[in-house]
Amino acid sequence: MRDLDRPVERVLWEVANESSGDGTVTDEFAAFLGMDKAPSWGDSTDWQYWVIDTVKRHEAARGYDPHPIGMTMQFPVADQTKVNDPLLGGHAEWISPGYDDEIFAGGGHPMTPGSPPSRWYADPPVADGAKVVISDTDHYAPGQGDALWAWKSFLRGHHPILMDYGLIAGLEPAAESVGGQ
Fold it and tell me: β-strand 94-96 against 132-136: which pairing, if any?
């Protein structure tokens, strides 16, 4: 964090996106990342809590208006069903949860062929107001978000953000309604 001549308004802080939660990845996933073997990344939970508390103390000491600070789903984690526990139990004002479905307790992923979708995608839980929830499809259904998911998430009190590879390359064929010729 950098001190400025004046405080910055309308900013959300994020410690780290998908920082390690003391789990391991498979050798196949490590190979996908270009690694010879699966690394041990450790557990960033205590560090993230420290960053959150330090930023809050720093802003208070400087007399700055506090900015909401967030923590996102950790990857990998030792027990996928508990992936959101550090988010819900920490001091962050906003969180971005991951898939915690019981069906994936023994491993697996909602993107595995034949797997059911995560509840966060198919039937998002109603927000309880304890934390602001930024619901990111990348954390439970990469590339699968659609308008129905966005509406379900929004109407249940979440702030949806969409990771959609289909929009990166543009629309084909280009439609007049989106400025195509």
Answer: parallel
Question: Beta-strand (E) ranges in 18-127?
Answer: 69-72, 94-96
Element (H, E) at 135: strand 132-136
Least confident of 69-73, 95-99, 139-143: 139-143
Model pLDDT for residues 95-115, shown as the tens digit of each residue: 999 999 998 887 777 878 888
Sign of torsion, CA 31 34 35 38? negative
Q: Measured between alpha carbons, how far is 99 from 83 in angstroms, rounded to an integer?
A: 7
Q: Which positions ≥6 away from 140 have C-beta within 8 Å? A: 97, 98, 99, 110, 118, 120, 121
Indicate the pTM of the whole model. Answer: 0.82
* Cross-strand pairs, 77: 21, 22
Cβ-Cβ contacts under 8 Å for 76 (sequence gap 6 or more): 20, 21, 23, 24, 25, 41
Q: What residue type is assigned to position 36 of the chain?
A: D
CB within 8 A of 52, min separation 6: which ones? 15, 69, 71, 90, 91, 92
